[in-house]
Amino acid sequence: MTERLSIPVLATERLRLRGPLEADFDAYAAFWAGPRTVFVGGPQDQRASWQRFAANLGHWALKGFGWWIVTEAGRPVGTVGLHHPPYLADTELGWVTFDGHEGRGVAFEAASVVLAWAARTQRPARLVSTIAPANTASVRLAQRLGAVIAGPAAHDPDAMTHVHDLQRYAA
Amino acid sequence: MGHRDIPVLETERLVLRGPEPQDYPDFKATFASYRSRFMGGPLNAYETWMLYAAEIGHWEIRGYGMWMVHLKETGETVGMAGGWFPAKWPEREIAWIIWPDKAGKGYALEAAHRVRRYFYEVRGWETAVSYIDPKNLDSIRLAERLGCRKDADAPSIDGSDAVYRHPTLAQLQGQLGHGIAMEIAHYRDPLFKPKGWALD
């Protein structure tokens, strides 16, 4: 048990974003088993959730960035991060609030701090969020973050590509 | 133990290393193929990459996982072997996959036998199982060549897989272990031609 992944800790006034720990898995799997995952590819069983959870850690190892677990008072309330599998043109910013934590600005606050981290340290050519138009909560959140719709997503024509304003967050 | 300090294991013909980004195309080719049908495949580009990332994440979470199996002579990869233990699984598994064009040369036998010894001797495992699709005859045959016995009393993952119980370290120290070592040695003999169909 020597060298572990060094995932940076990001903090806001009320939230702490840190690397995924095994103890987070139950909250993570509960979200992925539920109906709120309809816009993000779910619901899925525990086996698929575990693979996704492990893949989030592997993403950090392969790419140097990935998904954080968002905690509030030490408890996992959501997951926010960046991902970029090799077959996609753009790095993507994503957010999810676990059940019971939606509607409190958690995703906005966490996504803002991740956007700033990406703009300062990763500087991708383009940072996007792919969102189905019917996912109105996330569409609104992307707008609040300052993203602009560029058109249908290449890999998912039912969803729109929202392009984030990296300049604004680099400052 | 994170993914950065995965121990390197060696056998006569093989070097087992942690999965690296440059090994991904070999992994992808196999998981996009019919070869992966007993391991949840064939997978699309997204699923394949997520699974590869999960292979590395497993090392982070558990401190062990699946090694990439390389030929000592050429460095090329021929498959993967190691330990697998997702959340809520009944037991720790010893697992393997060999790329379709590398089957029949005894690589899975040699690699699985080596990782099992590592788990028993270094990590202190007392037992291990392999969860195998009942239609995956090559893997069932390999489990038997590794000395496994079907364990009808052990819980399976979801009822659709058969549980094969590996011999203990003590059991491997006798005739059984010698037999496995002898079979592996046969594959090193360039004149050795296994009878019948290619097996892992």
TrEMBL record, chain A:
Top-level taxon of the source organism: Bacteria
Location of the N-acetyltransferase domain: 15-167
One Pfam family it belongs to: Acetyltransf_3
Listed Gene3D superfamilies: 3.40.630.30
GO MF terms held by the record: acyltransferase activity, transferring groups other than amino-acyl groups
Name of the protein described by the UniProt record: GNAT family N-acetyltransferase
TrEMBL record, chain B:
Highest taxon above the source species: Bacteria
Pfam families per record: Acetyltransf_3 (PF13302)
Domain N-acetyltransferase: start-end pairs: 13-149
Molecular function (Gene Ontology), one example: acyltransferase activity, transferring groups other than amino-acyl groups
Matches recorded under InterPro entries: Acyl_CoA_acyltransferase (IPR016181), GNAT_dom (IPR000182), N-acetyltransferase (IPR051531)
PANTHER family linked to this entry: GNAT FAMILY, PUTATIVE (AFU_ORTHOLOGUE AFUA_3G00765)-RELATED-RELATED, N-ACETYLTRANSFERASE DOMAIN-CONTAINING PROTEIN
Identification of the protein by name: GNAT family N-acetyltransferase
Lineage of the species this protein comes from: Bacteria, Pseudomonadati, Pseudomonadota, Alphaproteobacteria, Rhodobacterales
